[in-house]
């Protein structure tokens, strides 16, 4: 092996190690994190028989954060709120540490995770902060809570109101906000479904046209034989 080849081999190996060490970019990690809530919430909608996209709309109302890549608001799993505007942390560990700092200060009224479950009013919801910030566990508890409210209040409208607060002055505006998001999300889902159906029809048409050409070619070949 020549010196030049050896130098290039060493450089390539070093570059490869750096790529592996760096892992996904910050933007890629943010994109992945922003999808965690949505997947967990949509699963719970099916599991708890909640109207399509309703729990998803609540998650956006609770922990929605602007997603530059998707150009839309998306629920953020590492959100912490205490007496004001929610704080969006870059990682699960950072969010847990933020809650621990608040608790050491004597703060108990803290909302956490995708669905902003309140640790004061739902003290037995999670076994630990690690579980509280797990998107699956957070969405599961919120889904069950909303379904129970629906059973108690006999209405999804009332369930949405009381998910936020039992106080009329607070839950009326909250319901309006959630339902506005819900309408937009249902429209988006409908448009995505229509676009997918059109694409499937286009692909099927291409397949059929190819099949027809093959049959025609086989027919011509058979006649020649």
What does this structure look like?
This protein is of the alpha+beta class. It has 8 helices and 6 strands, in the order αααββββαββαααα. It has a 4-stranded antiparallel beta sheet with strand order 4-3-5-6. Helix 3 crosses helix 8 (168-224) and helix 7 (156-164) crosses helix 8 (168-224). The longest helix is centred in the last third of the chain and has 57 residues, at 168-224. Residues 15-23 have low confidence and may be disordered.
Query: Stretches where pLDDT falls below 50 for ≥5 residues?
Result: 15-23
The biggest sheet amounts to:
4 strands, antiparallel
- Roughly what fraction of the amino acids lie in strands? 5-15%
Q: Estimate percent helicity.
A: 55-70%
Number of strands: 6
Q: Give, in spatial order, the strands making up the sheet with the most strands.
A: 4-3-5-6
What is this entry, summarized?
The protein is α+β, with helices and mostly antiparallel strands and 225 residues long. The protein has helices at 3-22, 26-47, 54-63, 92-104, 129-132, 135-153, 156-164, 168-224; strands spanning 64-67, 72-75, 79-81, 87-88, 111-112, 117-118.
């Amino acid at each position: 092996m020549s010196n030049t080849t050896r130098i290039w081999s060493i450089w390539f190996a070093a570059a490869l190690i750096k790529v592996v060490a760096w892992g996904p970019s910050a933007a890629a990690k943010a994109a992945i994190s922003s999808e965690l809530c949505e997947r967990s919430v949509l699963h719970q909608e099916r599991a708890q028989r909640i109207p399509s996209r309703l729990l998803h709309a609540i998650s956006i109302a609770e922990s929605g954060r602007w997603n530059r890549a998707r150009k839309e608001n998306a629920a953020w799993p590492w959100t912490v709120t205490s007496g004001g505007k929610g704080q969006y942390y870059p990682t699960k560990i950072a969010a847990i540490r933020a809650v621990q700092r608040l608790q050491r200060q004597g703060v108990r009224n803290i909302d956490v995770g995708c669905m902003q479950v309140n640790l004061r009013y739902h003290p037995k919801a999670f076994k630990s902060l690690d579980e509280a910030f797990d998107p699956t566990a957070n969405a599961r508890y919120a889904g069950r809570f909303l379904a129970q409210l629906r059973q108690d209040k006999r209405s999804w409208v009332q369930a949405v109101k009381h998910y936020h607060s039992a106080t009329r002055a607070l839950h009326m505006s909250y319901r309006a906000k959630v339902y506005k998001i819900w309408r937009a999300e249902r429209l988006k889902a409908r448009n995505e479904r229509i676009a997918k159906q059109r694409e499937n029809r286009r692909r099927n048409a291409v397949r059929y046209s190819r099949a027809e050409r093959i049959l025609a070619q086989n027919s011509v070949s058979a006649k020649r034989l």
